[in-house]
Structures
1.
Amino acid sequence: MGRTLLILREPEIRELLDPASCLQAVEQAFTAYATGGAELPPVIGLDVPESRGEIHVKAGHLRGGPNYAVKIASGFYDNPAKGLPQNDGMVLVFDALTGVPAALLLDNGFITEQRTGAAGAVAARHLARRDASVVGVVGCGGQARYQLAALALVRPFSEARIYGRRPERARACVEELGRHPGMPRGCRLVVAGSVREAVAGADIVLTVTASREPLVHAGWLSPGTHVTAVGSDGPDKQELHTDVLQRADLIVADSKAQCLRLGEIHHAVASGAIPESKIACELGEITAGLRRGRGSDGEMTVCDLTGVGVQDVAAAAVVLQRARAAGIGETLTL
């Protein structure tokens, strides 16, 4: 039997993976992971300190699915000054019956961006108040855009305040989002002058930075706020002061084991700010209906998203299925 490899490039992948489809796939993947329907090995982290680079390798398999996948994603923080994108990556897809390579998705990190935004929307769907209308975003890079585009699918917010360390980049983010067709009609997009200005009084707070020190303090947050922390995907990264988790009424992890090693939960537990028992559950337990999400409008909720490989598998499966159905991509004979 001949062996072939389907090659898809970023423009094709962008056409094939829209936010709504990705959101649905990622939610189903969380459910599978929480109910024993997925295989998920630990993350491999590799640093290239002399180039201010970091690489994450994540893999996963949804049981019964036709494929498993391995994702390599990188962030080299000096790249923009060199005229190169900060983030990059690719996804390798294999046949789950034979282990034969099935596809090479040269997405340049797009799948990671899209599925991370989708995960934030899944968290908001189950943990944010239904009447949430004001969003505070800490960070103005690409992920700020993906988070808000996905969030609009589940909570049609009326205002988003965006903070960035460099005001000109925050302004560029606001201007770009103002032209985004997925933003809620009439939504007010503004640049915040500080982290506190972005999050004070917000119904939903999104943190999307690579910060190594806490940026958000509990005293700035209102009762009923939901916080989705996205940026702490390494043991040395931290966006939330541990007092945020101390104050939270409900703490949810995408993967409890992983968050204890990498995320905001890691810092809070390791410092003694909270006991491990305060972690209520994993997000997939909520999507599966095994545990409740938000219990009341007054609760403050926190979801720690460190990124799990089943998200990449689920997103890649959507891309691959649609590409094959439409006859898109280049086929390479092995």
2.
Amino acid sequence: MKKYNVAVVGATGMVGQKMLEVLEELKFPVENLYPMASARSAGKKITFAGKEYEVEELTPEAFDKDIDVALFSAGGGTSEKFAPEAAKRGVIVIDNSSAWRMDPEVPLVVPEVNPEDLKWHKNIIANPNCSTIQAMVPLKPLNEKYGIARIVYSTYQAVSGAGVKGYKDLENGIQGAEPQKFPHPIAFNCLPHIDDFLPNGYTKEEMKMVNETHKILHDDSIAITATTVRVPVYNSHSESINCELRKPFEVEDIQKMWEETPGCIVQDNPAENIYPMAVTATGTNEVYVGRIRRDFSIENGLNFWCVADNIRKGAAANAVQIAFALIDQGLI
């Protein structure tokens, strides 16, 4: 198998480290690895596949090397500045920030859902928001078979989604320390506030779910609303998803459809207390669905519970899966 030269930008951060772990775990065919980070982290050592590497400073000139693909997880400002520098040098950028997601020239991809969008990339590909990614895996086949008229998202998002500082706020908050990242204590508390508030009363996170769902599913006709909540869980996001479908359905048929959906695992046996949970999703790359049941309050209404590891499937693993999809389609 051909091997590829891979850069990981933000290699010392939470998601960057996980990208390196997933590249190794999934045996991505790496020829040469180039870990990059800010000047502050340059010079640090990382280990990949049993070999030690020194992190180099992220500069435009760092991409003058022969690099096939660069996985970016260094924040929106960094991506806006450096992704075009890499792209114009012929590097395919897979970016985990929000910087490029809604750019009409940039594909927004979940490999199990819309891999065909990779064909029109112009050397920058966007990784969707973590909470959006996991919802897309079960919603895509649902929309294809039954049509979705409306979605109500209610999310319960782990502190790791806010980075190391968010993680520390929970860890230290349990001991009584004041929060440093969040506006209020997250320990023993829930915050209906992820990212900034917008003039329409929604948060940026909530509007990301609305806008990204439309773009990924190529269907602006779906009415969507969202409430996103930070909860005192270290890792893995949970979501209650309510859908109004356009066609009648049987719950058993939907369950069977999801059992056959790549990347989707059904855990739904209430009699045995089996349903998706954050503690069991953590450390895996799949999306888990359960509590699948009819919503009796509306015609063709469906409720289900959806859980995934936000640092893996919601970020690092999805990015690496995009890189594999590029290989599969002969685009790299």
